[in-house]
Specification:
homodimer; alpha/beta; Rossmann fold; 24 helices; globular; cytoplasm (chains A, B); Phosphofructokinase domain-containing protein (chains A, B); ATP_PFK (chains A, B); glycolysis (chains A, B); diphosphate-fructose-6-phosphate 1-phosphotransferase activity (chains A, B)
Chain lengths: 574, 574
């Protein structure tokens, strides 16, 4: 396989390759102001000690805010000021739309500051990193892949820098190639690896700075500092197109229930966002199931009740979304999987596992249809979770619902027509998509984002970054719950249509992001309203008492805020 | 279920609903010239007698060509000239993008000629036609669905007007509602039904004219008079988007072979068109397999040889397209299916079928994996073909290839990495798509196209329209064959991207159509060149001999052409 080679483009690909991503205003000028903020922290304070012990050199660095420079600094100052840099970049983890634009942005950024800086790509993912398989990324290569989908400029393989051997191979490569920086483009597990690598490099006084860039179609690498991941916007749009086509299809033929499983690993971000975009009849989120401890029986019953209620209105079609992580979040299946994976770790061979299960797990296992038994027995992924993309939860549920509806029909409770289902798994067919405008822009601008912090302690005591789950108290989930009954019964399907690059729809953002941003900005707005009210009250002509109370209150208040965020008043111009 | 109700639109849906389809120039003016052409004929002359015997009243009507009127007729003449008409319309057959625009075009056409004309929609397909479930199609309904996907304005059900009971129910409806015309929107089998209905209506002197409109995503209702079917363009574009995403994915991860089965029923038009648009490594067409009598073993070997050759170049990924009709075109499987369906017709119950197969069919059946056994035993569709959408040929081939690669590996012949595959079936997720600009325009203009002719005699002696197969001597297939070796080895993947409504790509046509049109128009051009040459030679100053030879040759030539196409010189202005 040759990397970095030019492909034959379709008209649209060609057109996209000329698209110039838009930068946020703060990054449009070469002069910008950096403001140091708080130290990075772990989401759960009880993890702080363990994390800081594991990452003594890298934990707790301060956040950097990029602001438009308020000083008049000439461009020329920058072009001469920056030293020559050698940066390595590697794709690590599943291909996600926008990955190529990270490299495009990185290339433009380092070349803008010094033409003699070099960008080195590792071919074939982490294997290329360990074995020093490199190509120098030239302008021609960047132009051939900008705004294009996939990871085929460099390819990817194992997606892992974890064992001592692997870490040392990476170290050796960085030192041999004399790299100033190593950029790791990846998702949750790649960022755990990147954090570990950064700590090891710091410990061994290796000069290479490790930078992780959150690119994951699952959208599960977000926190208070990172609102979205590169690729999520495109993935949701492509999947939403297909889901809404099935909604239209269901409504036209009126005889099928579509059970659609969506990629997304443990978290249900893709499923929730697609539900917002398409308004199907039902979506069952993993986080919801785990939190309410819904059993397989509960979920089946919930769907059957819906089918029954719709049949009473003469409706025999519907669309139900399921995240791929659902299977792991069902308590009894979770326990069964834990046992299976435990036996795997003990070296029990696949054909012996079923016979060594506990009586309880065995009873559940025997109850399940044979196709799902085979899938549950597949060996776990490298992060010890079940191989979710291969477990056909949609078929399992469709089958259980069919059996239950037949029972209800025989007992005379259900009087409608026979229940029919068609199952789909949407995942692979979206991953290689041309990135949306949002992802092109966001990825291109990402070059400046520094490595994320915020690892959490996992159960076995080894700190690692966990995927962000859906916030069941958040706006996006709340909105969905609010409309659930109407969506279930009234077929309020919405069709966002295929991903557009020009004209209407091309600038749309994901609904989850819009809603969450509204919330954040809404609160800042609320605070500003309070400040304005104070100004209105405490103005020339107000009484001495009012002035006195206001002054002392504000002094105390500023004191508290300063203690909570000690660095926010300092500024630094880059 | 309420039909004709307004939905909540996304931004793109709203925008599309304002799109005004473009009409061909001949239809843009209200005045147009009709030219009567040859009598319609069957493609195979040996069928003519049987067809004319079955359709004595409707077979052999003359073709009508629409030309821009060369006479200056005022618009007002038309608006007053046309009588009030009552037209019924019914969706019959699988939902196909553009179906709503047929109704939109029909509505505009009849209202343009007389505001008091009425368009009546039958709700729930042919069932609605039999039971006289109707709604009057108003401007509001048309506006709510124009340029939108699906068939949900009216829905569809059985897709059949075949039994004496059904035909009489349709007749009764048309007479009760006093319809001047009945428009049947559908594919191959619906057109057989429509032809039969037209003949019966003519026989019984029913005043309702039956009109069939070729709307089928399979693209298999084409002949010398109909170059394309409504829906085919959209379906190919949506599928091509997904296939090319998988190509990019394969190239990024470099570890999977994607086996993709495409909807299309017996014919492979969708697969061939998608192969042209995406350039995957391999496409196996049903027509090719049937014509070369390739066995399951041959096809498996062909794929394994390709996997082996690619592995020698270090390539462990690939994309292979399969039409859903493939399974029926493999000779030994075809024979097995014939036996199974024969036993079905004899009333043998499913669980007894396997034991009653002939020894030869039984041997093949026992060799097959259990999932495909179950699928082959499914009851046949209403047109007596296997339920193709439910037979997972892609999984069968992937499994056979895996077994064969393991054997080659054990024998030491194959030295590469383990073969991995992921299977997909693309069909349902494209059917409900927003129609492409091409399909919006084409469907809107279709209102003026009269019922197709060209039924062929089927094996059991009952005339029916057969799906058009890929022409293995045609340009589109030839182009594909020509590049097959390069496409197989060199990963020349092309990504047409998602369906666009504005900007680049929004005006693209299917490659099959472009190629076929080129051929046709190319030949007409060639003829015109000859005529020009004659003009150049036979001009004032040429010898008497030349003039004499030219005159007598042309007179004879015109004579022959006139005898072959007796009506083409007459004109008639509408």
């Amino acid at each position: 396989m040759t990397f970095g080679g030019a492909m034959e483009f379709s008209g649209l690909q060609k057109n996209r390759s000329f698209y110039m991503p838009e930068l946020p205003s703060a990054l449009q000028k070469k002069a910008m102001q950096l403001q140091f903020g708080d130290a990075t922290a772990v989401p759960d304070p009880s993890d702080a000690q363990a994390v800081s012990r594991s990452f003594p050199l890298t934990y707790g660095q301060r956040l950097v805010h990029f602001l438009s420079s308020s000083f008049g600094i000439r461009d020329s100052q920058f072009l001469t000021e920056h030293p020559v840099m050698r940066i390595g970049v590697v794709f690590c983890g599943r291909q996600s739309p926008g990955g190529h634009n990270i490299i495009y942005g990185l290339y433009d950024a380092i070349k803008t500051h010094n033409r003699r800086s070099t960008l080195i790509g590792f071919c074939g993912g982490t294997e290329g990193l360990f074995e020093q398989k490199t190509i120098e990324i030239t302008e021609n290569i960047v132009l051939a892949y900008r705004n294009q989908g996939g990871y085929d400029m460099l390819g990817r393989t194992k997606d892992q820098i974890r064992t001592t051997e692997q870490v040392h191979a990476a170290l050796n490569t960085c030192q041999t190639l004399d790299l100033d920086g190593l950029v790791i483009i990846g998702g949750v597990t790649s960022h755990t690896d990147a954090a570990q690598l950064a700590e090891t490099f710091a410990e061994l006084k290796c000069q290479t700075k490790v930078v992780g860039v959150p690119v994951t179609l699952y959208g599960d690498l977000k926190n208070q500092f990172v609102e979205a991941n590169v690729g999520f916007d495109t993935i949701c749009k492509v999947n939403a197109q297909l889901i809404s086509n099935l909604c239209t299809d269901a409504l036209s033929a009126e005889k099928y229930y579509y059970f659609i499983r969506l990629m997304g690993r443990k978290a249900s971000h893709v499923a929730l966002e697609c539900a917002h975009q398409c308004k199907p009849n039902m979506v069952i989120l993993s986080e919801e199931v785990a939190s309410s401890k819904l059993t397989l029986f509960d979920i089946t019953k919930r769907i059957c009740d819906a089918v029954e209620a719709r049949a009473e209105q003469g409706k025999y079609h519907g669309v139900i979304l399921l995240p791929e992580g659902l299977i792991e979040s069902i308590p009894e299946v979770h326990a069964l999987l834990q046992e299976i994976h435990g036996l795997y770790r003990k070296g029990v061979s696949v054909d012996k596992i079923a016979s060594q299960l506990s009586p309880w797990a065995s009873a559940l296992f025997e109850f399940l249809p044979s196709f799902i038994k085979e899938e549950l027995l597949l060996s776990p992924d490298s992060d010890e979770s079940a191989p979710l993309s291969q477990i056909e939860t949609e078929k399992l549920l469709a089958q259980l619902v069919e059996i239950e509806m037949d029972t209800r029909s025989k007992s005379g409770r259900y009087k409608g027509k026979k229940f029919n289902s068609i199952c789909h798994f949407f995942g692979y067919q979206a991953r290689g998509s041309l990135p949306s405008k949002f992802d092109c822009d966001y990825a291109y601008a990402m070059m400046t984002v520094k490595r994320l912090h915020g690892p959490r302690v996992s159960l076995i005591g080894k700190p690692s970054i966990h995927p962000a789950a859906i916030n069941l108290k958040g706006k996006a989930y709340e909105m969905m719950l609010h409309d659930a009954e109407k969506l279930l019964m009234d077929d309020l399907y919405r069709n966002p249509g295929p991903l557009q690059f020009e004209g209407p729809g091309s600038d749309s953002k994901t609904i989850s992001l819009t809603v969450e941003q509204k919330d954040y900005i809404g609160k800042i707005k609320e605070l500003q309203d309070y400040l304005d009210k104070v100004k209105m009250i405490v103005k020339p002509g107000c009484s001495q008492e009012v002035l006195k109370v206001a002054l002392s209150s504000m002094a105390c208040f500023i004191n508290i805020l300063s203690l909570m965020s000690p660095h926010t008043t300092e500024g630094h111009t880059l």
